[in-house]
Every structure is written in C-alpha cells, then in structure tokens.
Design goal:
- The complex is a heterodimer of chains A (about 475) and B (about 350).
- In chain A, a hairpin with a 4-residue loop joins strand 6 and strand 7.
- The longest helix of chain A is centred in the last third of the chain and has 20 residues, at about 390-410.
- In chain A, about 35% of the residues lie in helices and about 20% in strands.
- Chain A is α+β, with helices and mostly antiparallel strands and about 475 residues long.
- The radius of gyration of chain A is 22 Å and the shape is globular.
- Among the domains of chain A are: about 95-210, Uridine Diphospho-n-acetylenolpyruvylglucosamine Reductase, domain 3, CATH 3.30.465; about 215-325, Alpha-Beta Plaits.
- Chain B has three domains: about 5-100, Alpha-helical ferredoxin (Fumarate Reductase Iron-sulfur Protein, Chain B, domain 2); about 130-225, Rossmann fold, CATH 3.40.50; about 230-350, Rossmann fold.
- Chain B has helices at about 5, 10-15, 25-30, 40-50, 60-65, 70-75, 85-100, 100-115, 140, 145-155, 170-175, 180-190, 205-215, 220-225, 245-250, 255-260, 285-290, 290-305, 315-330, 345-350, and strands spanning about 130-135, 160-165, 195-200, 215-220, 235-240, 265, 310-315, 340.
- The chains are: A alpha+beta (about 475), B alpha/beta (about 350).
- The interface between A and B is medium-sized, with 36 and 33 residues.
Chain lengths: ~475, ~350
C-alpha cells in the first residue's frame, strides 16, 4: 500500500502526522487482545480536512480507521489492513450548549467527562456514562453505541444522539438526524451510524440530548446467599415497574477478587446487587429505593444498606468501581483479557447466565467472573488466564464460543455495549446470520470500495485468534 | 537488544489492560495529544522491544524520556501497574543499547565525578554537627540561600540538623537508566547515610530515599509542622503539590497545615493533592526536552492563575524553578500574574515576624 505522505501533510500539516514504526505500533492497539500496524496516523483538526483525507483514501483504495482514545475492547479501532488511522483528539470542541433545547453540539474527539464538566454549570448532563468516560470520546461512544451503569434508566448512546455530521466514504459531508427528540418515519440513517464502528461513515460532529442532573440520588446494596435469588430480585425489580437509575450484579468471583486484592471487606456471598434511584423529589426517590429494597428482601436479600450521602454512596459502590483493577490482580500469572467480556440476555436469564459462565470457565480451565449492568440486561465477564500459554488461548476460544452459544440459545445478543470489532465478530455473525446479506448490502452501498474500517463486524475473519497478531507473546 | 530490565516486568506488561485511563491526567499528553506520549503508549513501546516487534531507536528513546515521572498514570491505572518502574526499566535497557543522550550521560558523569548532578565541585553541603540527619539534595545544594533558610528554620524550631558531606541520592541515575552507575553510587550513599531515619528537604530525594533505600524518611514539611507556632501572615495563596510528595509519599496535608497555621488562606486548584497536575520539571525532561517542560509548566501556572490567588507556594525546588519561569512567560504574554515562592520563604518570613 503506497500512501502519499506529502499529500496528507498538505492537508493536515506536518505536525499532525506520525509514521515512525513506534507510533504505528502504539496506534495499532486498543484495549482488546488484538494488534496490527497502521500505515500512518493523521490528526485532522477540521471537517474539511477529514473530507480531503477520506476523498484521497477512497481514490487510492486506502483503508481509513477512525480513532478516539482507543479504549475499545473488541479491536474496533485496530487497523487490521493497515492504512490511515484518523486520530480525532484534536477535534474536541464543544460547538454549542443549548439548555432551552436540552441539547449540545460537539466535535467527535471531545472526551465524555470533559463534556459533562462543561454541562454541570447548566444543571445538565449527557447520560450514557460508560466506565471509560474519563477518556472515551463522544465519536467513539457513538460509533460503538456505548452505555454504562445508568443505561437502565437513561438508555444507551443511541437514545441520547439526536443527529450528527458524517463524512461518507466518498468524502461528502451529510447532516443526519435532527435537533428534536422525536423524528417520525423515513430512514433514520443517523441511528444506523450509531454502533456502526466507523464502517459506514466517519462521525465528525454530534448533536446530543441532555438531561437535568437529578437533585437526589440514593444507592442501595443487598447481599444474596444464592445467585438465583439475586437474579430473581433483579428480574422482579425490572418487571415491577420500578425505575432504578442503576441495577448492578456482582458474582462471588468478583466479590472474592475485590476482597482479596483490595481488602474491600464485601460480604462473602454468592451475589451482591446494587440498586440506585435518582430524581428531583426526595419522596419519590425514597419510594423507589424502598420498593427495590423490599423486593430484595422478598428474595432473601440481606445486610441491605442504603444511603444518600455521597461518601457513603462511594463506599457502597467502591467494590464495583474497583472491580476492574481487582480482576487484573486476581492471581499472579493471570491476565485479565477482554474476551466474552460483554453480552446481553433477557432479565429472567441473568442468574442462569452467570452460572453458565462459571460452568464454562471451569470446563475450559480459565477463570471467568460475572457482573454487569443487569438493569439493562447487560452481563460482563473477563477471561483471566496466562496469556503466554497456547493451551490457555485454546481454552479461551472454546469458552468464548460456548458463552455466546448459550447467549444465543436464550435469545440474548453478542454485545450489550462494548461493540463487535474483531473478537466478537464470529459470534455476532452467527447471531445475525439471516440478516447478514442486508447488512453487507448496506455496507456496500455506503462504502463501495470498502475503505472504512474494513474487515470488521460482518466482514471480520471467522477466527478472532488469528484475525490479527495477538498483543500477548504466546509461547 | 538485550531487555533484561524490561523482562523483569513482563507480568506487569501483561497485566496492563490498555484501557487508556492513564491518558486523563498525563501532562505530556496534555501538551502533545499523541498516544505514543502517554503511559500506555510507552508501555506498548516497552512491550514491543521486549517481544522484538520493535528495534530500539533514537525515536523510541526520545519517547521513553518524554515523561516527567509524575505518577499521575499510576494513580489512575485501572490495573495498578507500577508504570514508572516499568518505564525506568525500559529506559535502562535502551540506555544500555546505546541510546542515552549526551546531556544525560553528562549528568551521570557529573554525579560520579563530583557527587552532584551539576558537576560543580564548589557545590557542597553546609556540613554541621547536630542530632537529626538532614539530607539536602542536589537541587537545594545549588540554592545555598534556601538551604540555609531551611536549616535556620529547623534550628529556630528547636531541631538540631546534622548535615553531612552528602552526595546525590542516586535518583537521577535511576530515572535516566544508568543502572550500573547507580549500583556503585548506592553503596557510597549508604556509607554516608547508614541511619534509618532521615529528614529530606527535596520531595524527590525524600521519595527516592524512602523507596530505594527503605529508610524512614520525613519530609521537611512534616518536621516543620511538628514544631511550628501559629502566626498570622494574612496572605492568600494556592498550593502546588509536588508529585513525589503527594503521590509517592502521600504528604498532602502537612504543607497545607503549615500554611493554615501561618494564617494563609489556601485557594485550591481543581487538580490538587493526589490528582495534582505536574509542574513539568521531573523525570529528566528539564534537561532533555526543555520546551515540553515549559509547556507543561505553563498549563499548571494557568491553573494557578485561575484560582485568583496572587501567590503560589510549593516546597519543591524544581517545581518552584519551572513554575517561576512559566509565570514570567504567562505574565509577559499578558495572560495573568502570579508570584511563585518556595515554602521556606514563607515560613522564614513568618518566624522572623
């Protein structure tokens, strides 16, 4: 692949291009197990520059991979075919905040937390709140339809995006969506772009729906001796019409991980459920919390604690917040890999799903935990293994297959919020088998030369282990 | 390339989940905006050299040395990876591969020849008899008036400092990757300071002596606070936490208590204590990339100016130096004014009043 660096320098300037092997190596990685080499990293600062780069790439059939902070867990931003990595970190302006319309317009490279800091004085916030909001960019969140602990009440990114500006594969700029909360019929291409992982167009600007910051927030935590009881409590909370702003599950492996590595002192039970309510009126929040508390009690939940106090809330949630770190330190020699890390199942299957994950892990000689934003049906896990051992990868591959076989068997879906990219693509393709032809036709229509993040999602290799070089040195 | 130092951190390289949380507060990344300049970027470079995916190069060496060792990344790391230790190992390997800069080599030679980083035989500790071993450190030794002031402060507060004919603590050799030289140097240091308990003036020396030699190190602010009487200077100031003092030693409240005892109203910058923004002076970049250091310092001084306080106080000589320079630059551009002072100036002024 021959790339005219002078041409690119002419577009973005010399200071916004990197092509040393060291930079290409760094930009070939994200938070997944994958690693590939970009050909050049280009940092545009204007929409016009993005258009010019994409036009050039399209004419020369050069792959273009858009990149926010590279915090994705499935290899979405890994340049599997090389080409141009478009680094959006310099397109990070807030264009306008319109409190009266409950919306804002921002550039794609803006970091989520930076936006929320700017919105705070207006009493507003942008709700998706993925765990990575401190570094995740709005463009990356849209491209992956990110969500987080509050998605049970406020929805995923798709529910908070009103519109966007997108550079198409031929370099044209289109305005998609609207400035309104509702938009009736007609193909809503903006919705298609959300979660398309940079394969259909390059999102350069977004119009986002905002929410008022709730005046009161109360968190509760309940312990369950049996995982199934926790699962039933979660299912009933959702089915009862309660409106939690957070509903989280941690299994015993997760509890053990935070207790042993961080000395958190969580109760040694099969499961912990954390629930939260927020709102403008305290009595209403009280009522929601008490309602959820009663349901937990009904299902044998014990040691239930609730608090409005920020310090206490932080303490009650600390185990969940530190879980990621704890899993990384679960046992010497084991690494926390982003595999089978994300799925969604119907509410009634949450506990069963957690049990299945444990069963599968044992069978395949890896360690797997189960936790997640159960209020939105989202279950997370990680595979803890020695990544230098070939047999561990073989076990991990079987485990991933078995997890997603189960998820499909109960009507669940491959990814709740971490995206498909490369490592979940084989499972996703099985899930979407009967619509793959339509999906491929859409891709062909919007990107006929297949330059936009090629060989991802529906076009990704069937074996994620050999899709790219693994980031770990396997013996 | 031999990677014996990086190899010892192999497990930590696997533990890093590449989540990018280290981007959030990285002062170098705040200036350059390139991922290669973040902790994750540098960890990936170390990994590449370990696996053989990357051959060592001057470019990689430059990248590895573009770090202030401020440990903001370690503080935010979701997997608790000791980033600075891994990076120091990578620096050591690339130095052994022949990629040390002339400036850094010069500094290592200076330490060997004169016992201090400046290579100046005239820079000597003001040796005196006393009861409590006090370690001055190269940066304060090069500022004899401030050293004298700190010693006088201790004496006025009833502490009898024992000052020896000291040599560099060895931190620059560690930070800049001169492991062989460091091993030799450490022996000499321990011959001079066999004591378990030391009071150190410089935050970086304090942190290093504590971590590397396992000594019970008190920072001078802790000693001052124990004996300081209340005064009322009636000033308003912001306090800059030196990274080694706050993030490594966990000393964030003692300097603030001193200021409060002296009747100084503290206006905090949003990034304070363990989330303090680096001044840009650490990790050797002051020598290898002064422009980058200046740019980081300007970011910090702007944060200080935004507090509206007329004065910034810090107990670190390096922070003081780079922030003073930044304040001058910002002031000359008409972007605000703030005075930068060492804590010693303030305490001494109060004790004399």
């Amino acid at each position: 692949m021959k790339i005219d660096l002078e041409k690119l320098k002419g577009i973005v300037g010399q200071d916004n291009i990197k092509n040393d092997i060291a930079d290409l190596y760094v930009y070939g990685s994200d938070s997944s197990v994958h690693n590939a080499l970009a050909s050049v990293v280009v940092r545009p600062t204007t929409i016009e520059q993005v258009q010019a780069i994409v036009r050039y790439a399209n004419a020369e059939l050069i792959p273009v991979v858009a990149r926010g902070s590279g915090s994705g867990m499935s290899g979405q931003a890994v340049p599997i075919d090389g080409g141009i990595v478009l680094d959006f970190k310099n397109m990070n302006r807030i264009i306008e905040i319109r409190p009266a319309d409950m919306l804002c317009k921002v550039e794609a490279g803006l970091v989520d937390d930076d936006l929320n800091r700017a919105l705070k004085p207006y009493g507003l916030f942008y709700p998706p709140l993925p765990a990575s909001s401190r570094v995740a960019t709005i463009g990356g969140e849209i491209a992956n339809n990110a969500s987080g602990i509050r998605s049970v009440k406020y929805g995923a990114t798709r529910d908070s995006v009103l519109g966007m500006k997108v550079v198409l594969a031929n370099g044209d700029l289109v305005n998609l969506g609207s400035n309104t909360k509702v938009e009736a019929s007609g193909y809503q291409i903006d919705r298609l772009m959300v979660g398309s992982e940079g394969t259909l167009g390059i999102i350069v600007e977004a119009t986002l729906l905002l929410k008022p910051i709730p005046k009161f927030r109360c968190i509760g935590r309940a312990s369950f001796d049996k995982l199934e009881d926790a699962g039933e409590a979660i299912s009933e909370i959702i089915a009862s019409g309660a409106s939690p702003s957070m509903l989280e599950l941690m299994d015993n492996i997760a509890i053990t991980a935070v207790n042993t590595t961080l000395n958190m002192g969580l109760p040694d039970v099969e499961a912990i459920v954390m629930f939260e309510a927020d709102g403008k009126v305290k009595e209403a929040v009280d009522a929601e919390i008490n309602f959820m508390k009663e349901i937990c009690e009904k299902h044998s939940g014990s040691d239930i604690e609730t608090s409005y106090d920020l310090k206490e809330r932080t303490k009650l949630f600390a185990g969940r917040k530190k879980l990621f770190a704890a899993l990384s330190r679960y046992k010497e020699g084991l690494s926390c890999t982003s595999l089978a890390d994300d799925m969604a199942v119907p509410y009634s299957k949450m506990a069963e799903c957690a049990s299945k994950i444990h069963e599968i892990a044992k069978r395949n000689n890896v360690v797997m935990t189960a936790y997640g934003h159960c209020g939105s049906g989202c279950m997370h896990t990680k595979i803890l293994m020695d990544p230098t051992k070939k047999e561990q990868w073989e076990g991990a591959k079987r485990a991933v297959d078995e997890v997603y076989d189960y998820v499909r068997s109960v009507g669940g879906t491959t990814s709740a919020e971490h995206g498909i990219g490369l490592s979940k693509a084989p499972a996703w393709k099985k899930e979407k088998a009967d619509s793959l032809a339509i999906i491929k036709a859409i891709k062909k229509a919007l990107d006929p030369n297949n330059i936009l993040n090629p060989h991802k999602i529906q076009d990704a290799p069937d074996d994620w282990i050999t899709a790219t070089k693994l980031r770990y040195p396997v013996e | 390339m031999e990677t014996k130092n990086i190899k010892s951190w192999n497990d930590e390289l696997n533990v890093c989940i590449r989540c990018a949380y280290c981007f959030e507060g990285c002062p170098v990344f705040k200036v350059t905006g390139w991922e290669t300049d973040t902790a994750r970027g540098k960890i990936i470079l170390a990994y590449g050299m370990l696996t053989g995916d990357l051959e060592p190069s001057q470019y990689i060496a430059d990248k590895l040395f573009q770090c202030t060792y401020c440990r903001d990344c370690s503080e935010r790391c979701s997997a608790n990876v000791p980033v600075v230790d891994v990076l120091a190992a990578a620096r050591a390997d690339i130095v052994e591969a022949g990629f040390a800069s002339d400036t850094h080599k010069g500094m290592a030679k200076n330490v060997k020849a004169t016992g201090n980083i400046f290579g100046d035989k005239e820079i000597k500790a003001p040796v005196q008899q006393g009861e409590i071993p006090v370690y001055i450190g190269c940066q304060y030794l090069a500022r004899p008036n401030q050293t004298k002031m700190y010693l006088k402060i201790l004496e006025k507060l009833g502490v009898k400092p024992l000052v020896k004919d000291e040599i560099c603590c060895g931190y620059p050799l560690y930070a800049l990757g001169f492991r062989k030289e460091l091993a030799e140097h450490k022996k000499k240091f321990l011959e001079i300071f066999p004591e378990k308990e030391i009071v150190a003036l410089c935050p970086t020396c304090a942190a290093y002596i504590h971590e590397e030699y396992g000594k019970d190190v008190k920072h001078i602010t802790q000693s001052i606070l124990e004996h300081l009487p209340e005064k009322n200077l009636g000033l308003k100031a912001t306090y800059h936490d030196p990274c080694d003092l706050s993030r490594v030693m966990g000393i964030t409240e003692e300097p603030r208590e001193i200021l409060k005892k002296l009747g100084i109203e503290i206006v905090e910058m949003p990034k304070n204590r363990k989330t303090s923004h680096c001044c840009g002076g650490g990790g050797g970049i002051l020598m290898s990339d002064v422009n980058l250091s200046d740019d980081i310092a300007i970011l910090r001084i702007k944060q200080a100016i935004e507090t509206g306080a007329p004065l910034l106080i810090t107990p670190c000589p390096t922070c003081e130096q780079v922030l003073k320079k930044a304040a001058t630059v910002v002031n000359e551009k008409g972007n605000g004014t703030i005075q930068v002072k060492n804590l010693s100036d303030i305490v001494w002024k109060a004790l004399r009043s």
